[in-house]
Write a structure and sequence with these properties.
460 residues; alpha+beta; Jelly Rolls; 2 domains; 9-stranded mixed β-sheet; 5-stranded antiparallel β-sheet
C-alpha cells in the first residue's frame, strides 16, 4: 500500500533532521552556495519536488521550509498560517508536513497578481495541485495580512514569502507584525523572507519595498516580534551573485513565449533596479518576551554591499557603452504598453490614461546619456490635427523616492493624416544616485502605437 502525502512528508522531515547544514544561522541573505547545502538541496528535491534552479524564489521556499522544520513547527498536531500564499509551491509542501495550514491572500478576480486572481480561493488553490495534498490539511481564505481573522494564540507557526514588502508603508508593516504576534502561540515562530536592500537606506517605494536591515529589524520590534540573535550577511564572490537587472527592463522580443518572460522577470539571485541592489533574505521571528530579545548581531553585510556596488557599476559601464534597447513596457505589470497592438495584430486596447509607453528606471552613474526614440503611430489618423506626443525623461533620487522630476520634455506634432513616424535623438545629463525613465504621453488626438523603440547609450 502506497504512503499518504502526510506519511511521505513525515519520512522526509526525519531524513532532513539528520542532515548537516553548511551555514550556521537561519537568518541570512541568499547566496549561490546555499544550493549546495545538504538541507536546502533535500528540501528542493523532496519537499518541493522540483529540480534545483538558481532563482531567488526557490531559495526562499526552501529556506522557509527548512526554518520551520528546524524549529519543530512542522508536526502532525501543528497549525500554521501563511500570507500572500497565492498558489505558491511551498503551500502544498507545508500543508502535507503540518497538521493544518491556513493559506491566505487577497484573492480577487481583479487582482494584479495572477496567482491570486480568483473569486473562489479554495478552488483556485486546490484545483490541479503540483503534487498530492493530504485531505483536510489545507484551508484557503481571502484575508488581509494587516487584520488577521483569527483568535489570539491560534497558530503554532506562520510564514510569508516576499509578501510584506507589497502591503504598504511602515504603519502597515508594524500592524502586520503586531497581528502575527497576537495570533501566534507563546513560543510560536514566524519564518519570513523579503527583499533586502544592500545599502544604508530602504527603497521605500510604497507597495514595493526593499528593506535596509536596520529598518526591517526595527519594524519587527515595533510590532512585538523579536528576531534571532544573529543575521548572516556574507555572500560568496560567485558569478551568480553578481547583481542582475530584471530582463523586463530591456527590449522584449515578441518571439519569446509569455511563460518564459514571466520566469525571466524573476531575478536570478541579486537584483539591480534603477541603481538599487537587493537580495532575498530570511528572518526568524518570535513573540517578544518569549525568547532572547537582545540586539541582533549582523555579520559580513558591509563587505557584501561593497562588492555588489562594484559589480553593479561594472555591469552598467559595460551595458551602456553601446546602444541598449529598453522595453517600452518596462513599467507595466503585464509587459505590454497600453496603446500597442496585441500579439495577434488586433487593434490596441483602450487605454486607461494618456501614458503611451514607459521604460523602466535605469541608473547611469553620473554619465551623460544619449537616447534614441522611434514611434510608429497607428490606429488610423487622429480625429483632430495637430495631434501631439510628448517624450519626457523623468528622474528620481534614491534618497527621495517621492520626488520625480522631468529633466527633458520634447513635444512632437502630427500635422497631417500621413504622419506616422516620430523619431528623435537627444542627450541628457545623469546624476549619481539618481535613475531615469523615458515616458511617452499622448498630448492630443486619438493616437495608437504600432511600435515603440527606445535605445540609450553613454554619450561621453
Amino acid at each position: 500500500m502506497s504512503e499518504t502525502p502526510s506519511e511521505a512528508a513525515r519520512r522526509h522531515l526525519a531524513a532532513l533532521a539528520a542532515l548537516p547544514s553548511t551555514f550556521p544561522h537561519d537568518q541570512k541573505i541568499c547566496d549561490a552556495r546555499d544550493w549546495s547545502d545538504p538541507r536546502i538541496a533535500y528540501v528542493i528535491r523532496h519537499a518541493l519536488r522540483c529540480a534545483p534552479f538558481f532563482v531567488g524564489r526557490q531559495w526562499e521556499y526552501a529556506q522557509a521550509f527548512s526554518i520551520l522544520a528546524r524549529r519543530g513547527a512542522l508536526r502532525p498536531d501543528s497549525v500554521g498560517i501563511s500570507f500572500g500564499a497565492g498558489r505558491e509551491l511551498l503551500t502544498y509542501a507545508v500543508a502535507n508536513a503540518a497538521g493544518k495550514l491556513v493559506a491566505t491572500d487577497l484573492y480577487d478576480p481583479q487582482s494584479i497578481w495572477d496567482t491570486a486572481r480568483s473569486s473562489d480561493p479554495s478552488g483556485h488553490v486546490l484545483a490541479n495541485p503540483p503534487f498530492p495534498v493530504e485531505p483536510g490539511h489545507l484551508e484557503v481564505r481571502s484575508m488581509d495580512m494587516r487584520a488577521i481573522d483569527a483568535p489570539d494564540g491560534a497558530f503554532d507557526f506562520a510564514y510569508s514569502i516576499s509578501t510584506i514588502e507589497h502591503i504598504g508603508t511602515d504603519p502597515d508593516f508594524v500592524r502586520h507584525f503586531a497581528e502575527v504576534r497576537r495570533v501566534l502561540k507563546p513560543g510560536g515562530v514566524y519564518a519570513m523572507t523579503t527583499e533586502l536592500c544592500l545599502g544604508p537606506r530602504s527603497n521605500a517605494t510604497a507597495g514595493n519595498y526593499a528593506f535596509a536591515i536596520a529598518h526591517l529589524l526595527d519594524l519587527c520590534r515595533q510590532g512585538g516580534l523579536a528576531p534571532d540573535a544573529d543575521f548572516d550577511g556574507t555572500q560568496s564572490d560567485a558569478a551568480l551573485n553578481w547583481p542582475t537587472t530584471p530582463p523586463s527592463v530591456f527590449h522584449r522580443d515578441p518571439l519569446y513565449p509569455v511563460e518564459l518572460l514571466k520566469l525571466c522577470n524573476t531575478p536570478v539571485l541579486v537584483r539591480e533596479y534603477g541603481g538599487i541592489v537587493s537580495v532575498p533574505c530570511s528572518l526568524v521571528l518570535r513573540p517578544a518576551g518569549t525568547s532572547d530579545d537582545g540586539a541582533c548581531r549582523i555579520a559580513g553585510l558591509n563587505e557584501t554591499v561593497e562588492r555588489a556596488r562594484r559589480h553593479a557599476a561594472l555591469v552598467s559601464e559595460t551595458r551602456f557603452r553601446d546602444w541598449t534597447q529598453l522595453s517600452p513596457a518596462g513599467l507595466f505589470i503585464d509587459g505590454r504598453y497600453p496603446y500597442a497592438a496585441d500579439e495577434a495584430g488586433a487593434a490596441g486596447r483602450k487605454p486607461a490614461g494618456d501614458l503611451m509607453f514607459s521604460t523602466a528606471y535605469n541608473a547611469f552613474g553620473g554619465r551623460r546619456v544619449k537616447a534614441r526614440v522611434t514611434l510608429v503611430v497607428g490606429g488610423g489618423p487622429p480625429r483632430t490635427l495637430p495631434a501631439r506626443v510628448d517624450l519626457v525623461v523623468h528622474e528620481w533620487s534614491h534618497a527621495d523616492l517621492a520626488k520625480i522630476v522631468p529633466v527633458v520634455a520634447r513635444p512632437h506634432y502630427l500635422t497631417q493624416a500621413g504622419d506616422r513616424l516620430i523619431a528623435d535623438e537627444f542627450e541628457f545629463a545623469s546624476r549619481p544616485d539618481h535613475c531615469y525613465a523615458i515616458f511617452g504621453w499622448r498630448g492630443a488626438g486619438d493616437l495608437r502605437l504600432d511600435h515603440a523603440d527606445v535605445a540609450v547609450r553613454f554619450a561621453d
